[in-house]
Every structure is written in structure tokens, then in C-alpha cells.
Amino acid sequence: MASNEQKLYRQAWYLSLFTIFYNLVEGIVSITFGYADETLALLGFGFDSFVEIISGIGIAVMVTRISRNPASEKSQFEKTALIVTGVSFYLLSAGLLVGIVGSVMKNHRPETTLAGAIISLISIVVMVWLTIAKKWIGRKLGSEPIIADGNCTKLCVYMSIVLFAASIIYELTGFAYADVLGTAGLVYFSITEGRESFEKAKGKECGCEGRCKP
To answer: How far apart are CA 21 and CA 141, in angstroms?
Structure first.
């Protein structure tokens, strides 16, 4: 393998590690502020970050595998990580749906959503950069799996945008159901990510936009 190709795979691996550690920090901060401010959307965003860590570990293993043998198939560890990720996303979605029902029935309002606006704005910037970096490296290597990983990172961008919009709307208008609507948006994307994880575990290539092929 050429030295330049090795360098690109090493960069892809570092991006995977960065994704894992960033989600760890983001998850801890989001859950802490989400609990303190009683905002369901931010809590859900935090739990999503921890699910992304499981996925990130699987991606790091994938990058290591294809750097050694680009033509090799998914390892059992990768498949297990994808299945665990899929189950976790579905469980998260179910939990958030229960939270939505509870919030509506109690007419619950967060104390503030300012932390959500700040955290999501930072996440948008970081995830856009990660998307561009992963897809650039994937194209340089001609690696569809790494490009697909970059495409999947776009879902994190969309989730961050949903949280940011819900947080800003509530902060500026006090609209009672802004937090609930933001949480509903997270449920949609969590279900999407869960479905993609199961499809990939079955050996299908997915673009994280609802398109999978054998």
C-alpha cells in the first residue's frame, strides 16, 4: 500500500476516534443540561450521542479492516456493533415517544432551552466539518464505506439543526410545544438511523437517506 494511501487511512481512523470522543463529551454535557433545564429534546440528543459512540467504535474497526484489506467483508464485531446500535436507536425512539406523551399530558415546559441552542450550534459546525472531511478522504481512497460513513454523519447535522430550531423557537417565543416538536424530530432521525444499522448488518450498502441495495 502506498504511503499516501496509508496516510489517508490513518486520517480516517483519527476522524473516527475524534467522533467517538466528541460524542462522549457532547452526550455528558447534553444530558447534564437537559436534566437540569428539564428539556426532553436536549436529553434525547444527549442519549443519541452515546448511541453514536457504539456506532463510532464499529466505524473505527471498519476503517482498520479496510486499510489492511479493502476487499474484505464486515467482521463479526462490526455486525454486532451495527445490531446493538440499531436496537439502541429503536429503544431511544420508544423512550422519547413516551416522554413526548408525558410532556403533552402534563403540559410541561422546559426551564430554558438556551443550553440546547448553544450545544446544537457547536454540533452543527463540528458535524458539517466531519461530513466534509470523511467524504473527502473516502473519495481520495475510492472507498464507498468511508463515503457512506460521511453521508451518515449528515444525519447528525440534521438532528442538530432540529434541536437548534426547537431551542431557539422556545427561547424566543415560549411556544409550549417547541420542545416536544424538537423531540419528535429526533425520534424520526433515530428510527432512520436504527433502520440503516440493521440494513448494514445484513450486508446492504446504505446511504443513510433511505436507500439501501444488496
So the answer is: 24
